[in-house]
Fold Site-specific integrase.
Amino acid sequence: MIIMAKTRYPNVYVDSKGSYYYLVELGHDLLTGKRIQKKGRKTANNVKFRTAHDAYREALRVKNDYQESHGYANYRMRYESFMDKYYIPSYKSDVETSTYNARISSFKHLKKWFGSKELREIKAIDCEQFRTYLLNDSGYSQGFASMVYCLFRNSLDYAVRMGFLDSNPSRKTKAINKGKTTVAFWTKSEFEKVLSVIYTKDYYQHMCFVILYLYFTCGMRVSEGLALTYDDVDFKRHRLKIHKTLEMKNKNDYVIKPYTKTINGIRTISLDSDTIRVLKDWRKDQEKHGVHNFIMSYDDTPMSRTTIPLIVKRFAKLAGVKPIQAKGLRHSHVSYLINEFNADVLTVSRRLGHSSPEITLKYYAHLWPRNDETIADEMEGNIKFQPAKENRLRFTGNQNIHSTK
C-alpha cells in the first residue's frame, strides 16, 4: 500500500517512495454528475517530477488547458469583470443597503488599480505595491486605507472560495492597521451651553432641541434614533424601546427595518423624568402641526441622517463649543454616565446595546477616569510590619554584604 502525504502546494502530493504527483478536480460531468479528476506523475514532455513545484506547475497547466478547452472563459477573467459579475453582486446581497452604498467608491478604487489585470496574474508583489500606495501616496486617512485594502483582500478570498484562484496572494502581505481614532464628544457643561442657545418656541428649533437631548441622554445610534416613534415610549413606566433602524434615500423613499445593528442592540432603556417631560412637551407641539408618528420629525416623515450633523454643527458654533460628529453624541452619553453617575461598564454596555462589556471597553475605556492616584493615597500606611532586629539568614555567598546602616 502506497501512502500519500500533502505538500505545501495545492493539489500536489508525495507518496511513500518520495515521488511527486498532482491530483486536480476539474468539475463534474454534466451527464452523470460525477467528479472529474486528473492525476499525473510526469510533465507534458513525459519527464517525472523532480520537485513538488514541478508537479504544481503541471497541475496548473492541466487545469488551464481543461478550462479553456471546455469553454471556461472565466479562467482568464480580468479583475474588473470578476468584481462586476461576481464579487460586488454577492457583497451587495450580504450587507445592508447603506453599507453597500458606502463601499461603491472603494470598489471604483480597486477596479481602477487592478481592473485590467487578469485575476490569476495578480501576485503578492502587486498587492504589496497597492498596500504601499494606499499608505504613502493615496492621501487617504489610515482608517480609509485600511478599509479599502481589507475589501480588496476579501474580494480575493471570495475568488478562492469560488474556485477562480487556488490561493489569495494578498494574504502574504500585512493588513493595514486602522490606526487610533479619537471621537470628539461634548462634556455636560458643553452640552448645557448648546441647549441654552436653542429657542424652543420656534417649532424647528424645538425639534433640534429634542433631537440633541435624546441622543445625549439615551446614547442611541443615529439610525436607531431616527426610527423612533411614540409607540416605542412607555410614558407610565419611563421606558424607551430601541428595536429598529431607519434606512433612507429621501423623505419619500425610506424603510424602517425591524432590527438594529446587532441582535444585542434591541433593548429597552430607562428614561428619567426630565426626558419624559421633554418628550411630552414636544409631542404636544408636533400635534399642533399634524405630526403624530415619528419623534424626530417636523412633518411626520423621518429626518434624514445627514441633517443630524448639520444640526450639531449649527448649534455648536452658536454656543461657542467644539463641533462634533453625530456619533460623538453617543460618546457624549457614555462620558455623561461615567463622570456624572460613576456608571459601571456593565450598565453602560447594556444601555448602548453592546454584545458584551468587552466591546464597550474596546471603544470607551479611555472615558473612565484613572483612579490609581486615589488608590495610591489609600495604600500609604496600609501595610504594617516591624523591621527585623537581627540577622536570621545564614548565608556566606559572594552577595553576603553587610549593610552599613
